[in-house]
Amino acid sequence: MAFYPIQIPPTPGFGFTGGPEFQTNVQNIASGREKRNADWSICRHKYTAPFQNIPEAAYRSIKAVFLVMRGKTHTFLHRDWGDFTAVNEPFGTGDGTTTVFQLSKASSVPGFPAATYTRVVTKPNVSAPLDTPLVIKAAGSVVSPSVSELDGSVAFVSAPAPGAALTWSGEFFVQVRFDIDYLPYSLDDRNAGGYVTNGSVDLIEVLDE
Predict the structure, then answer these.
(1) Residues with Cβ < 8 Å from 90, sequence gap 6 or more?
(2) In angstroms, rounded to a whole number, what is the distance separating the alpha carbons of residues 3 and 72?
(3) What region does 188 belong to: left with phi over 0, alpha with psi -120 to 50, or beta?
(4) Please, what's the b/e burial string for 134-151 (b: 16 or more CB within 10 A of its CB; e: otherwise)?
(5) Please, which residues bridge with residue 139 across strands?
(6) Can you tell me the distance from the alpha carbon of 169 to that of 48, in angstroms, rounded to the nearest whole number?
(7) Helix, strand, coil share of the chain (percent; to 5)
(8) So what's the pLDDT on residue 192?
(9) Whole-angstrom Cα distance, residue 159 to residue 144?
(10) Residues of the chain with pLDDT under 50
(11) Bridge partners for 104 per DSSP
(12) 8 Å CB contact between 84 and 45
């Protein structure tokens, strides 16, 4: 298995679906109550990305990624259109000793600060456009540590000062694989440039790989 830092080319078409998924074992007991056991403490994201009325060349680009990935075998990058940015997102606090930190993004409900979910960000977009650059701050000042696009680690030359709040802003990807080993498509119309193609791909997030 291998990871390839490539993406499926963006294709036109509404109907993109996706989101987080947990796995919970629910047992009904004789009293009518239930017992719930969380099989997963971390969610996995799943997506279905349609391609609609695209030219043959665009379909061949999607097919090329599918073939190189050998279906479900290898992993690549995908943009989660519902959540791909961070704005002044906390990811650590300096202690004067630690030099390496992990990018993350937290979700919380207003009024319940103790109820949070932290998503580890392992694929930051270090080559984002100039209007959404990756920015790291320590105690409110912009700094320039080394940010890994492979695992989302942030390495400082010198440890941030004790109590220094570390934040980041920018874009990130999700590491995914195809959740299909068969890529069907249909030829539904023809225009001056040739046939137009329709279909969809199913993707699933891959963690800790």
Answers:
(1) 106, 165, 166, 167
(2) 12
(3) alpha
(4) bbbebeeeebebebbbee
(5) none
(6) 27
(7) 5, 50, 40
(8) 67
(9) 12
(10) none
(11) 120
(12) no
